[in-house]
Amino acid sequence: MSMNITEMKPREYTKKDKINAKHETLVKGFDSGKTLDLEFRKEQLRNLYYAIKDNEQLLKDALIKDFHRSPFETEFLELHGVYSEINLAITNLDKWAADESLGFDIRMMMARPVLRRQPYGSVLIFGPWNYPYLCAIVPVVSAIAAGNTVLLKPTEMAPYSTEVVATILERALHPSIFQCVTGAVEESTALLELKWDKIMVTGSSNVGKIVATAAAKDLTPVVLELGGKSPAIVSRDANIKLAARRIAWGKFSNSGQTCIAPDYVIIDDEVKEKFIAELVKALKTSYPNLDKDTEDWTHIATDRLWDRANKLIETTKGKVEFQWGKADKASKFYPPTVVSGVELDDCLMGEEIFAPLLPILSVSDVNTQALPIARQHDYPLAAYFFTTNSKRADELLSRIRSGAAVVNDCIVQGGSAAIPFGGIKNSGTGRYHGKFGFDEFSHARPLLRQPNFIEALLHGRYAPYRASNLKNLRFLGVPSEWFPRSGPVRRSLLSRLVNSRKVQVLVLIFLALFLKSRV
Length: 519
Fold this sequence. Notes:
Structural class: alpha/beta
Helix content: 40-55%
CATH class of the largest domain: Alpha Beta
Strand content: 5-15%
Shape: globular
Number of domains: 3
Number of helices: 18
Distance between the termini: 73 Å
Mean pLDDT: 93
CATH architecture of the largest domain: 3-Layer(aba) Sandwich
């Protein structure tokens, strides 16, 4: 693509008749059967990989233009993940798509049951504005690897990034398997009126509810990647300097506009002041002389979101401990801001913050008091616990419900193709990245091939029903209880022997020969 950002203009929104035509193209593309060919899928992913690689600078420039995104953050937080996902899918696609043997069942042994993964069909993917490359392209990669055709609706809130993504993907991928629609609410509504085989959205909880409601009319399965208030819990025994540095990075990267960023901190009273001092030191070290022109600092995406962040700071009852720089609405620059003395009823503890504002709640003992605080904002995308006591971390995190949990770091789980990404309840449903994304966009269909020659074993299932037949079927279908009515539930040596697969196979062979002799 021989283009630069000065030549790029946000494209016009897609008309409804074109939306319908694009949908029809994808349905016909899937029905053609071309996506069933694994080599075709790999070639498409290969083309996409190099199209992105050849336009790296254009992708970075688009986000600078949209909201002053640091080029370093664009590459490290987004493009590295995209490259990793495509590489992993191409490398492992044959293995991922292979039939998977199912667990042993003596009744089904001859039918050789397997799981065969089939594509859903034509899928609709809504991309977000905060990570318009990683969270839009990676689902497309997963869906294409699984053999689907894809319609991508990128965000309208980052128009230059959307134009670049749409242009790159449209040129790299065959039009019969990929289409793109640009627009806002009206165009999204038109898309949701069409019949899809699966829908994925990355966005707010409110958007997730709208999509889920629309999908319900056709019982269309959905993947919802939403958000929530992810806590960072800092114990008195934590490495405070390291915890402050890692929380500062996780919270303030992309100017706090990250769905898995630590939303607030719960900390032991006795280490609060030290933590704040280290947090300030980490911010000043990372962003010396921070202002609206600093390249390394990302700005707020829209005027509305800037106003929201500013109002939260004007309204909070907490103490603004630190604000590194002067906010500037004209450029949508908002500096990292740390607020202490925050209570549960504070405005900062309402919805997910999604801005460079970090409230700190101090308690006398996080081990006993963090759980009820965290449960006030249940089911976030992530929970973070900083401690040197792994047993204590396991005890607390086992009782905090979240999409993911990390000890002594934050947000790292979102950039790995080896780790499933997804929420729970109000932070989302479904999961993707790597093999998990392939599985999410595939239907795992059980396949059995029952041979004719075992009819001697099966004839007892037919009417007229006889007690002798039921006795034989019970022998095959109902295992003997190896566990007692009371006391410890442990297998005895005899029970393990009787329930071994080899013994069961020998019994099956003997039974087949015995029944055959009687027929």
